[in-house]
Amino acid sequence: MFEKILIANRGEIALRVIRAAREMGIKTVAVHSTADADAMHVRMADESVCIGPPSSSESYLSIPSIIAACEVTGAQAIHPGYGFLSENANFVQIVEDHGLTFIGPSAEHIRIMGDKITAKDTMKALGVPCVPGSEGGVATLKQAQALCAEIGFPVIVKATAGGGGRGMKVAQSATELEKAFLTARSEAKAAFGNDEVYIEKYLTTPRHIEIQVFGDGKGRAVHLGERDCSLQRRHQKVLEEAPGPCITAEERARIGKICADACANIQYRGAGTIEFLYEKGEFFFIEMNTRLQVEHPVTEAIFGVDLVQEQIRVAEGLPMSFTQDDLIINGHAIEVRINAEKLPDFAPRPGRITQFHAPGGLGVRMDSALYDGYKIPPYYDSLIAKLIVHGKDRHSALRRLARALGELIVDGVDTTVPLFHALLQEDDIQSGNYNIHWLEHWLETNLRD
Ligand code: ADP
């Protein structure tokens, strides 16, 4: 059993991992930038190490500083959280070369899934259904035009190294293709240092349905159903729920088994998410995330499992604590992402929190690193809290969400809370009738200012 682990992250996800470790009797080391000296994860961990200045590239992304922090504190393993180094295969390799354990998948699996073309090829070979599109990368505009003439418009040009919704451009027609192709390429080059792009058929009314998978790294794997993350702004998730309002038990069992078998086949280790677009009863793979997702708590709520403790278990070489048959859905869960942003344009609003009160009561979970007087630094992501509610069914979860949002107090900065109050008034949200474009349309008509 590990005695001490280091968390290479900050904010709510660092607290999430500290909590899981503490319940397992494992000591924790927080790392932080100079801007985060007063952050909650630093206060809550057993030990902390300052690893650099505010800029992420010199602190949370600094591999030598993080390895040195492990050596100084005697931490035996590193949990990367999400974002930062969590999907950096080179980091995993370095961690392992130093005799430390990476709490996550192998460097090889991260590398395969981090390149979206290789990921798609791998999944296709494993029998996972994919979005129709180019076989591999598309190098020239001429190739792009020929392919699109074949698959038909609209299409989406995507960066093979992409992530976070960047490097993606939609072309509705042949005339739009040139611009979409060239901008996607230059955005990809600027954001990821790799301008390779590929092309997919653009699905017009899909839902974003993702399957949570978990493997022991030795050929056993399970699925923990789906999350519907269709409510998105600029390809970024805003609200997530599980189970998906439109997914039947048969569909879940079928796509879940395909995903679990794929993970078993490659001996995948730890938590992963296989993302699909879902349209007219069909699933189309878009990418796999080889880490814990921001929205993992909705899955934890309905299955009653602790995914972080499970990650730590399998990283130690222990078997998973559940089998597929143990995993039975109980009720419905919804998460909303609360960002320090000002509506209607979602401009980041870092600043000092003058008053904070987290909601509570039955079925309410608040994952947040806020506290009274905390000053949100301007250097990092604007996510400040995740509010997760669990009810016996979707209707009670929605009622509980409204109740919990009403109890929440975050004063001193603007937040996205008013958005959720407004969304809960919508019939489509109440009935679960939305796709990946619903929120953008709604924002255009309702929040124009
Ligand atoms: P990223 O890694 O940048 O998050 P993804 O491939 O996961 O990119 O896609 C993010 C979002 O973009 C999806 O949830 C969906 O809303 C949209 N999207 C991606 N591919 C397609 C497609 N082929 N058709 C329609 N929408 C798409």
UniProtKB/TrEMBL annotation:
Gene Ontology molecular functions: ATP binding; biotin carboxylase activity; metal ion binding
InterPro entries named among the record's database cross-references: ACC_Biotin_Carboxylase, Acetyl_CoA_COase_biotin_COase, ATP-grasp, ATP_grasp_subdomain_1, BC-like_N, Biotin_carboxylation_dom, Biotin_COase_C, CPAse_ATP-bd
SMART domains, alphabetized: Biotin_carb_C
UniProt keyword GTP-binding present: no
A biological process term (GO) from this entry: malonyl-CoA biosynthetic process
Function: This protein is a component of the acetyl coenzyme A carboxylase complex; first, biotin carboxylase catalyzes the carboxylation of the carrier protein and then the transcarboxylase transfers the carboxyl group to form malonyl-CoA.
PANTHER family to which the protein is assigned, alphabetical: BIOTIN CARBOXYLASE, CHLOROPLASTIC, PYRUVATE CARBOXYLASE SUBUNIT A
The protein's name: Biotin carboxylase
Protein source organism: Roseovarius mucosus DSM 17069
